[in-house]
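Friendly challenge for the regulars: who can give me the structure tokens for this chain first? No prize, just bragging rights.
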Amino acid sequence: MNTTSEPPLESELPQQPLLAHMQELRRRLMLAVGSWMVGALLCYGFVQDIYQILAAPLRRAFGDEEGRRLMYTGLTEAFVVYLKTALWGGLILSLPVFLYQIWAFLAPGLYPREKAIVRGFFIAGPVLFIMGLLLAYFGVIPLAWHFFLSFQSQEGLPIQIDPKMDDYFGLILHILLAFGVAFLFPLVLAILIYRNVIGLDRLKQYRRHVFVAILMVAAVITPPDVISQLALALPLWALFEGTLLICAWMQRRGPKPQDPEPNSPAPEKKTNDHD
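First reply, four minutes later:
Bragging rights claimed.
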């Protein structure tokens, strides 16, 4: 009857009415969105510098060519691009606040072991996302820009690119987000393994299928050249193998599941059963 060493029962956790939960969620969402707006305003004060950072790979790909530029053809295009740049920059700056507000909302309803796991996910998520951004910005995008610029020609009627601000921003944002989100794949995989949706043995059995799926995803979300696709597929494969090793190590060293034991009194009574 007395469970001193086990986690608290669900009825023992702090409970609040539904209305109180909704008010708490609303308050934390307002704090998170407010931090986003503050970050966006701060980024807009340096929006030209931020956009020049995004345009730096293209500037380096152009090299010493004279007269290269990013153009805009609509009166509002430059303003809209700068506004989107500030909003995305503000979102990145406010990401720690968003994560903290989510954690503060979920933590009171979690067991201590669940808190440790969720805290680990909240730490690993931004790190993996930033790793994806850095790989795309310093590795994939320069290679992709050189590939696309290779179609220019000075023979006969010259063929030259004159990119627009909005098109360039949309393309580089697509690549950065694709790599950042793709690098969250190990977290999704770890959650599925932890919740017993997918077993480790089954994943090891279907390694080749996973590798083919990674190649297909990389072909869809990267520019259409083999170098960019491999630049995403190989790190994702390494992260997949690393996730399998870490999950296997955690299953060996982690505590045994405690849920089935209290609900199975039958084996304890078999020792006293003389029938």
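Residues 256-275 have pLDDT under 50 and may be disordered. Residues 112-149 form the longest helix (38 residues). Your move, everyone else.
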